[in-house]
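Write out the 3D structure for:
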Amino acid sequence: MNRLLVSSLLIAAVCGAPAVSAQDHAHHHATPAAQAADPGERYATDAPLRENMAGIRDAVAALEHAEHGHLDEGQVVALADTVSGHVREIVANCKLPPDADAALHLIIAPLMQEASKLKANPADLSPAEGMRAALESYDAQFVE
């Protein structure tokens, strides 16, 4: 099973949505070999992607307050829900060329995984580091 289909199924499972085949998914997928931009080339974005990634950045930045003991577990769960909600919006509304879409899925799948970990155990803030790494990967591969 290719990694993109696995990522899509993982996102669907985490979101509680029914699994869809790659053909049913609104995005077109590239082959696994075409998953990252060349080092000097970055992918263009669309408005839904930019808006939702900004929301994800804000939520992840707010998690720094939790790391300093300034948020309770309920607030951490709310921030994790915010990240998950923005990822669902990206999946539903973002329209990118196949190569960019494939690269994006390698970024949003870890965001969903880390958000799920935070929701399951809001006292363990280590998933925030994985979210920051995903955002760094996005910044390296996409231009806004």
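The radius of gyration is 15 Å.
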